[in-house]
Amino acid sequence: MNTDAESVVRAAYRAAEGSVLDVRGFVDLFAEDGVFNNVVAGESYRGEHLGDQVAFMGALAPDVHRDLHRFHVMGNVVAVELTIRGTFTGPFETPAGTIRPTGAELSIPTADFWYVENGRIKEFNCYVGLSVMLAQLGVRPDFTSAVTASPAAAS
To answer: CB-based contacts of 43: which residues, under 8 Å, 6+ apart?
Structure first.
């Protein structure tokens, strides 16, 4: 296996493609103490959970694909501008219940930052366009409830 940073990151993207969906292979690219940070959602994954988001996206859109627009390698740091694409054919579990599949085409802008040490992913910070993704799933903000619940509305 090639252990340079770019090769490791490209292998991670390949493992996360819907046509491959090799969750174990994705996880195996991480260092023992590696971490996957879903920054926008405020979630971090370690150990056996490193592949949770890969499995989630594969279930949400089994045809998930990542268009890699810009790939920048700076030593052991790899920065990637990409679009996550796929068709919403899997259910989306939310705290309020399940959003049923609509067949909507997803096109989610994303920026990823990978930190590779000794041929393994030490840290992966993913900044996914969550508001864009939710809108494409049909989830709209409820501004009325937010205004009603705000302290200014109570006075």
So the answer is: 37
